[in-house]
Design brief:
- Strand 1 and strand 2 form a beta hairpin.
- With 133 residues, the protein is mainly beta.
- The strands form 3 sheets. It has a 4-stranded antiparallel β-sheet. The protein has a 4-stranded antiparallel β-sheet with strand order 4-9-6-7, with no helix packed on it.
Length: 133
């Protein structure tokens, strides 16, 4: 069992502050680092088990742009809607994960930046690892 500690401090300048402090228990986690060169597409396996194993997914990049996208797939040949990685993306809990439309087994990243800047992507995934009978 692994524990992920999450602390999020959101403050509106001259307005309210919202603090979130959460502990998330997962059976296993993986940290994946990959560089997506300009004009290239790369697929990343984020889980090997059942489709609904992921309950935590964080995607961070060295470059944020509507021209850097990812698609969520169950199999490499699946088609899927591209999601712009214009800010860090955090999916906390199976409800948030379900908003992706399908279980995130494979993430396919595409870098179409006109500046030809490589994007260093960090993925932190928390999941169940023990198969249920």
């Amino acid at each position: 069992m692994a524990t992920i500690n999450l602390a999020l401090n959101v403050q509106v300048v001259g307005g309210p502050t919202v603090l979130i402090s959460k502990t998330k228990s997962v059976q296993a986690y993986d940290k994946i680092e990959v560089v997506i060169e300009a004009d290239l597409e790369k697929s990343v396996d984020v889980q090997s088990g059942a489709g609904d194993d992921v309950s935590f997914l964080l995607i961070k990049s060295s470059v944020y742009s509507s021209e850097i996208t990812y698609a969520v797939k169950e199999k490499k040949e699946d088609s899927s809607t591209e999601i712009a990685l214009d800010e860090p993306h955090l999916y906390l809990g199976k409800g948030a994960i379900s908003a992706l439309g399908k279980p995130p087994k494979i993430l396919t990243f595409k870098n179409s930046t006109t500046t030809k800047t490589p994007a260093a992507i960090e993925i932190l995934v928390g999941r169940d690892a023990i198969l249920s009978p």
